[in-house]
Specification:
The chain is of the alpha/beta class. It folds into 2 domains: about 40 residues; about 120 residues, Glutaredoxin (3-Layer(aba) Sandwich). A 5-stranded mixed sheet has the order 5-4-3-6-7. A two-stranded antiparallel ribbon has the order 1-2. The chain is elongated. The N and C termini lie far apart (about 75 Å).
């Protein structure tokens, strides 16, 4: 009888320990889910403010040549990909934000990264509000800006030497454009 009692107590203690560990694991998974959800809407932290834009040469969908030297002094830049769900979610807000900018299309560059046919359909609403470049992964603009994740929204402007640098990696599409920086 003492062995049976000891076995029941041991199994009960083991079950209680298992329950505590399972609850701790659930709590930890919820914390990670919250972090991942917050990360999706987070600024493009991979590019720090002050990051210089490297030299590049490309052509927009309208056939206009585009180089580092031809970038506007204050430019909103978006790197989007049709294969990423957050990009699909942000596209309407980005188009609305770009449409309301005082400089109009001249102050907006949209880089759509993906397979050309899929990217062209995704880029269609961007054409009236931005200069659009479609490129494959690791294309000229992605390399020049150092972008590896999507969506990436940036503001660029000249540094003290007149070279374009990232001036903001936290573009808030919900802020009124008069206050956008």
């Amino acid at each position: 009888m003492p062995y049976l009692t000891a076995a029941v107590v041991f199994v009960g203690a083991l079950s209680a320990l298992n329950l505590v560990l399972a609850l701790a694991m659930v709590k930890r998974l919820r914390e990670h889910s919250g972090l991942l959800t917050g990360r999706r809407g987070a600024p493009s932290a991979e590019l720090e403010v002050g990051t210089r834009i490297a030299e590049f040469e490309t052509v927009t969908e309208a056939g206009e040549p585009l180089t580092r030297a031809s970038l506007a002094d204050d430019l909103l830049v978006a790197f989007l990909s049709p294969g990423c769900a957050p990009c699909v979610e942000k596209l309407p807000a980005f188009v609305a934000h770009a449409r309301s900018l005082p400089g109009g299309r001249r102050g907006v560059l949209a880089v759509v990264v993906g397979e050309p046919r899929e990217a062209a359909a995704f880029a269609a609403p961007l054409g009236p509000v931005a200069h659009v470049v479609i490129e494959e992964p690791n294309g000229a603009l992605s390399r020049a800006f150092g972008v590896h994740s999507y969506p990436t929204l940036l503001r660029i402007g000249p540094d003290a030497e007149g070279r374009p640098v990232v001036t903001s990696n936290a573009v808030d599409l919900k802020r009124p454009t008069a206050m956008a920086a």
